[in-house]
Structures are given as C-alpha cells and as structure tokens.
Amino acid sequence: MTWETHERYSRQIPLIGEEGQRRLLDSRVVVVGLGGLGSLVSTYLALAGVGKLTLIDGDRVEWSNLNRQLLYDEASIGLPKPVIATRRIRQYNTHTEVDYNITRITENTDLEKTIGKPDLVIDALDNWTSRKILGKYTCKNNIPLVHAAVDGFYGQVILLDPNKGYCIDCIAPRTEHKRKTPIPNVGAGVGVIASLEALTAIEYLSGITDRTGTLYVIDLKHRQITELKLKPCHKTL
Ligand SMILES: [Zn+2]
Questions:
Q1: Most exposed residue of 52, 131, 187, 221, measured as fewest CB within 10 angstroms of its CB?
Q2: What is the pLDDT of residue 176?
Q3: Ligand 1 geometric centre to CA of 143 (Å)
Q4: What average pLDDT score do residues 144-150 get?
Q5: 236 located within any domain
Q6: How far apart are CA 211 and CA 146, in angstroms?
Q7: pLDDT category of residue 173 using cuts at 50, 70 and 90
Q8: Measured in angstroms, how far is the CA atom of residue 147 from the centroid of ligand 1?
Q9: How many domains does the chain divide into?
Q10: Model-level pTM?
Q11: Rounded distance, CA 43 to CA 191, Å?
Q12: How far is it, in rounded angstroms, from Cα 81 to Cα 72?
C-alpha cells in the first residue's frame, strides 16, 4: 500500500484491518439501480476503496429524483444516470475503476455480459420484477447479493449468499404485484437504508462480518430495527 492509500483509508483501517482494506481494493462490485439507494451505496463503496465498480441503470435523471439521489443535481436533469454517476464517482476516488451500462434489468437483458462474475452484486432496484431476474442470475452463478428496499418509512436489508443456500426467493417466494403509484420516501430516510446496505457490503468484502441470511427490517418512524434470522431455502433458481 502506498503512503497516499494508507493515509486515505487511515480512519477505517483500525476497524477493518490492513488485510480487509486490501480485500476492498481487490474487489469488483456491480451496483444495479442508481436511484436513492444506488447513489449512496456506489459512493460509499468508492470512498471505502472498492477497486472496480460497474454501475447499471436505464433511467434518465428526473426532477422527482433530486430529493434523495445525491449523485445528481439540477444540471443532470434529462441525462442518463450511469453517465453522471460514473463521472461523479471518478471524482471521488480516481483509484476506483468505474464502468457503466445504460440498461434496465428485464428478461431480455444479457446479464452474463452486463454483470459478469463480480465478487458482489448490490440490489438497489425499485421494483420486484427486476429484482427477481437479478436474484435468479446471482443465485445461478453463486454471486453474493446485498438486497435493500425502501417504502415510505420502512426499509429492509439482507445479504444473500447462494454459497450458503440463500437466494432472493428466501425473502420473496411469490412474484409481487406491480405497484401503480410511485414509492413515497424522504431522502434522509432512504439514506439510512442505503448506508446500512453499503456497510453490509463493506463488512462482507473486507471479511470482518458476514451477515448472510439475517433480514434487517428498519422502521424509520419508530426508530426500530428488527432482526429476522431466515432459514436458507437451498433453491437452485
Ligand atoms: Zn432461497
């Protein structure tokens, strides 16, 4: 590690260790969804020193995004999210290699090509149809997935490692109905869930804590976190 690298990460190395820092620097993470969750998670992963990031989203920046999606500002309106996000994250940490893909996750997406075989995938999506498709891919390819979701003053976070029998079906066995109205949220509340998702990823990648299979349900209004230890379904999706 160079002096600059050491200095940059000097406040977190006491917590994750030199070895943990090295693991972060050597890891590749794919962030799917660059909205409220993805904005913060990708930023925190770059700040923490993750070596390679792939950013995926098919949307353009809209006015209704700006109450929570920290990667964008008024000048970003109408532009593709991955382009702005990549530029911003490169400014945060020039040592993190960032690439992107402007695409939505549907049955027709070539996930082999867009995601490949990273060390970890971040589910920062806003719909269950795409989540199921993504979860199926990561399960089939034994790629650990950190899932998070927000709805109003509620949020949830879980690490699903297929190598330990956990998949997206462990938390959502049925195909969910499509939501007709936009998900309401307050930016600061989304930030809490996003930060927990990023922390879960950093703990896992650095090797200090593996929270596979524990679902954290966060009630933002009552300031409560409920921990649910799930049984793995061992499904091969
Ligand atoms: Zn499962």
A1: 221
A2: 66
A3: 13
A4: 98
A5: no
A6: 10
A7: confident
A8: 13
A9: 1
A10: 0.97
A11: 12
A12: 8
pLDDT digits (tens, 9 = 90+) for 152-161: 999 999 999 9
Q: Give the pLDDT band of residue 222 (cuts 50, 70, 90).
A: very high
What is the domain range of residue 193? Answer: 3-229
Q: How far is the CA of 171 from the centre of ligand 1 (A)?
A: 7
* Cα(20)–Cα(25) distance, integer angstroms: 9
CA of 160 to the centre of ligand 1 (A): 8
Give residue-wise pLDDT tens across range 22-40: 999 999 999 999 999 999 9
Residue 92 resides in a domain: yes
Residue 235 lies in a domain: no
Distance 104 CA to ligand 1 centre (A): 24
Domain with 30 in it: what CATH number? 3.40.50.720
Tell which residue, 27, 31, 30, has the closest CA to residue 40. Answer: 31
Measured in residues, the chain has a length of 237
CA of 166 relative to ligand 1 center, distance in Å: 4
Q: Burial of 59 by CB count in 10 Å (0-12 exposed, 13-18 middle, 19+ buried)?
A: middle
- DSSP label at residue 179: P
Note the pLDDT of residue 73: 98
Distance 191 CA to ligand 1 centre (A): 27
Predicted confidence (pLDDT) per residue in 42-89, tens digit = 999 999 999 999 999 999 999 999 999 999 999 999 999 999 999 999
User: CA-CA distance, 104 to 236, in Å (whole number)?
Assistant: 24
Q: How far is the CA of 41 from the centre of ligand 1 (A)?
A: 24
